[in-house]
Design goal:
about 280 residues; single chain; alpha/beta; TIM Barrel; 8 strands
């Protein structure tokens, strides 16, 4: 059965490692990610964005995750990534998601506090952990607004106030990463991350990690990050795997054939990240 992210992240926090959270786009992504988790004996978080949910529905993706979790011998959680409204977060909780994120980071501080606190209260009543975001992860998440030109960093003092006032159970922070494809080499502001860690005690989350060097991710984990998100890199791997199969076998018309190539590529990427995050062997 699906589990919540609460114990996963608290265990990661006490064990100084991070749990990988991987955005899934279809059946093949779910199977590939969970297969990698089984192979590495790692807990794992499956995620869907609002855009992915609109493509099918909460129920469709939850059903895929439930079947995968029931068959798996490792802990599997289902998380709503970047929930943009109170209503969507409640829909996910009612559908059976075992973790949700409310992203009020595009709003002024007080409005972010208000919407996050409302979702956190609903989450506590349902026993569902609630991730929030303060500061701005750069780039463009899914089909949300572009954060270009805005201050990307989370203020450590604001983070302490935010966590206390909202009751969120984990916090995504802006420390220099960005969603989407990086145009240069990304740089995580480790000093800001450590300052945030000194002021808050909830697990910290790193978004926009596709393309961030492994060494920077490991340093961020040492600085307090307990959950690390990957999306773009998985999409690239799946597409490249499918295209490679079609290039080698141009007469292929069975989707299962080329999808297998995409799945293999996603599985390899996920397994590699689990090794780097330190969650391999932690199931």
């Amino acid at each position: 059965m699906l589990v919540t992210t609460k114990e996963m992240l608290l265990s990661a926090q006490s064990g100084c490692y991070a749990v990988g959270a991987f955005n899934v786009e279809n059946l093949e992504f779910v199977m590939a990610v969970v297969a990698a988790a089984e192979e590495r004996r790692s807990p794992v978080i499956l995620q869907t964005t609002p855009g992915t949910v609109r493509y099918a529905s909460l129920d469709y993706f939850l059903a895929l995750a439930r079947v995968a979790a029931e068959r798996a011998s490792v802990p599997v959680a289902m998380h709503l990534d970047h929930g943009g409204s109170f209503d969507l977060c409640l829909q996910a909780i009612r559908a059976g998601y075992t973790s949700v994120m409310i992203d009020g980071s595009h709003e002024p501080f007080e409005e972010n506090v208000a919407i996050t606190a409302a979702v956190a209260r609903a989450g506590r009543a349902a026993g569902v952990p609630v991730e929030a975001e303060l500061g701005r992860v750069g780039g463009k998440e899914d089909d949300g607004p572009d954060a270009g030109g805005e201050n990307p960093f989370t203020d450590p003092d604001e983070a302490a106030e935010f966590v206390e006032r909202t009751g969120c159970t984990s916090l995504a922070v802006g420390v220099g990463t960005a969603h989407g494809v990086y145009k240069g080499t990304p740089h995580v502001e480790q000093g800001i991350l450590r300052e945030i860690r000194r002021r808050v005690d909830v697990p910290l989350v790193l978004h926009g990690t596709s393309g961030v060097p492994d060494s920077q991710v490991r340093e961020a984990i040492a600085g307090g990050v307990c959950k690390v998100n990957y999306a773009t890199e998985l999409r690239q791997a799946f597409t490249e795997g499918c295209m490679a199969h079609l290039a080698a076998h141009p007469c292929t018309f069975d989707p299962k054939s080329y999808a297998a190539g995409g799945m293999a590529a996603v599985r390899e990427v996920v397994a590699s990240h689990m090794d780097n995050l330190g969650c391999a062997g932690r199931a």
